[in-house]
Design a protein that fits this description.
heterotrimer, A alpha/beta (183), B alpha/beta (260), C alpha/beta (361), A: 183 residues, alpha/beta, 6 helices, C: 361 residues, Rossmann fold, 2 domains, 44% helix, globular
Amino acid sequence: MQEQILFAGFGGQGVMFVGQLLAYAAMDANYEVTWIPSYGPEMRGGTAHCTVVMSDKPIGSPIVSYPGIAVAFNNPSFEKYEPIVATNGLLVYNSSLIDQKPQRTDIQMLAVPATDIADELGNLRLTNIVMLGALLAARPLLTLDQLRHALEGHIPSHRRNLLDLNLQALERGAALVLHTPQM
Amino acid sequence: MSTTVCVPNMEVVYERPIALADVHTHYCPGCTHGTAHRLLAEALDELHMQDRAILVASVGCSVFSYKYFNVDSCEAAHGRAPAMATGIKRVNPDNIVVTYQGDGDLASIGIAEAIHAATRGDNITIVFINNAIYGMTGGQMAPTSLPGQRTNSSPLGRDVRSAGYPMRVSELLSQLDGTAYIVRRSLHDAKNVRKAKKALLTALKVQEAGLGFSMVEMLSSCPTNWGMNPQEALQWVEDSMLPYYPIGDYKVIDAVRELM
Amino acid sequence: MAKEMLKGNVAIAEAAVRAGLQAYFGYPITPQTELLEHLSKRMVELGRVFLQAESEVAAINMVYGAACTGVRVMTSSSSPGISLMQEGLSYIAGSDIPTVLIDVMRGGPGLGNILPSQGDYFQVTRSAGHGDYHPIVLAPASVQEAIDFTVLAFDLAEYYRHIVIVAADGQIGQMMEPAELPEMRPVNEKRPEWALTGAIDRDPNIITSIYLEGHEMEAYNLKVQAKLKEVKKSEARWVEHWTEDMDLLVVGYGTAGRIAYSAVEEARERGMKVGLLRPQTLWPFPEKRLSELTDEIEAVLVVEMNAGQMLEDVRLAVSGQIPVGFYGRMGGVVPMPDEILDAIDTHYKRLAIRLRDKERV
């Protein structure tokens, strides 16, 4: 098994952190894992992205041309990464902010109103965790419990007061997929 | 090796300082590098620093100064002596770290390293020999060459419209808060030589007390490249250099005054 | 120690601390700045020396000074900064002073960009400054290797009294993966007998790289060459994958070697007889092993993130016996596994045609 997951969005949407969180959980679950950020010119404005590769054997390349899963947080990311998701792959997108219609028919699309849900929970910064919850419900790479442990272990100390809200966000994202009929 | 000859009823008036190696130097006749070397060695002796001093030699006529002092020493790249000294002092704070640099080395290729060591207040001592010319490479214009001064690379005299103005290093470095003791002395006569020695003693004491960056600039002569005999050269220091580079104490912080 | 999720730059910095680093002098430059930032905190915490220099020129000369006193010292930078350090490196090499340098390579020439590259192969393996010498160059392909090679770098530097460069790239510096840090080693307080510590009860030590007489300078050079010969004999390191029963050998190091691994793995799955040689030391280059393998294979494909620099070493080792192909991306563009796979496929087909023609003849 080898999965490549690309997270992309504006700086400040927690794209890097959510990728790291998945990587921590994968490591704790004894997977081989790599996390690599974009740190080039696109960091200034536009989109930032990171790629997580998790595998049950040693990982060669930490980057791929055609990731199996992409998670798009904003319009520019959606435009950039929809075309490169591997055939039969999955595109999770933040439908609160992305107003475009998907073009691909050979990949699975999952619309998540993540920013709205985060807003309901009272903190827009939870958008990334809602997205991750939805992703894991659609593709059970790891269990929600494994993610909960990772959150408890790796949430920055100055955000520790938000741990419960983060756990709620994870569940809200997952519930959205588990309790909604798929398109 | 030197031999001591005992003659009854006679007083020893000259001895080689322990910190000065018993070798011939390569300096030209009449050059004041020899004087400066002896002053530094005497100062190290008097303060009992010979066995904990580390000398950083520079590039220029003083390139072999590491051979002339009886202390641990190393040879820096052009201009980099203050950086090297910083590296040494930071890991060996108990050693006395001294750079010995000429004007081309310090004021031209190494001015960045000198300024930053000074502004950091690195607790090192720079002995700065200013003879207004590049000696080692054969008499080219230095950053300290005087307006109108003829050199092998300013044959018509330094034209400030093209070559800019001489750099007054002591004045420049004294503006930096990290500096503790910055003075200019001259080696053109006995009285001034004695004052230069006193300044070296103070500078080394400043370092020993951990007060910060110290530098003694010494106006020096270069008879060979100036095309003068030694006596004329000393006169030129007095007549031409002193007006442009006034002797004086450019920075003496209060804590240093207590040492003097 | 347990594995932790570590970013390459931070892992290198912490590995150096645990290897007993006593002083660090450096200057910020992307993509290695986290390394300097980590040390700015850790070294001070531990009461060791950290100093942000005014330039890479000053940093390497501070390293030179501190190294002359016999302590464990290092600096780190990225390509344009390494260019500035060439002067200091040459002086260090000219005075047999152990020094460790980390180069997190980025795209060039010129100011270039901050993306991963292997464009420094020449400048780190071919002498690093003026004069005749080669630094020892270690090329990690993972965060774990970055850690292990940093520790190894100090040991090799001290053993040979030589410069050891860990040549990583922006990708190794920026990526995170699980890796294990070594135990904290105690700082070695003992100074070697050549070190500048003050001439207490001994003759002065002198460290210099100047030998005015030609024959003296040549004698020194011969000494350096003898040392390098020893290094060449003992220190070449590499890893091999699928090198038994192969027709085509892919050679790549660092990030390019790691990405090539994915491509070669896929090529094997598709039935191509392809292997991978990943040099871990760029100098000494594992030329002997490559030369041995040359007898067993039909062609070599070199993969680099530059215009073909290690390619020259591969050609020297192969000595014209078999074709040597090249696939490279430049300017901070990282080759993707499928691109390398395409290159393997092309070379493999070419090879098949040639082998068929050979059989016909």
